[in-house]
Give the backbone structure.
Amino acid sequence: MLFPKEKKIFCPKCKKHTKHKLKEFKSGAARTMAAGTRRHERNTKHGYLGKYKYTVLVKKQNKKPTFIAECAECKQKIPYTLGKRMKKVTQQ
């Protein structure tokens, strides 16, 4: 879906509608010492046990994209999402 690079949305700091620059949110690297990561490694990386059997969760094909909106006046950054699922987002 084509999405604009700038959009006029409400800024909670300025308390008015201002222009915001939108850029797609990208998550950081996963933590290696998180409980889920350690549990997964404990179950998979030892001995000759082979594959770790776990319940298969059916994932949805599309994600709801999250944007970081930066106010042009006060430079406040706020998360901004659309309520729609889409496979690919391109900014025009």
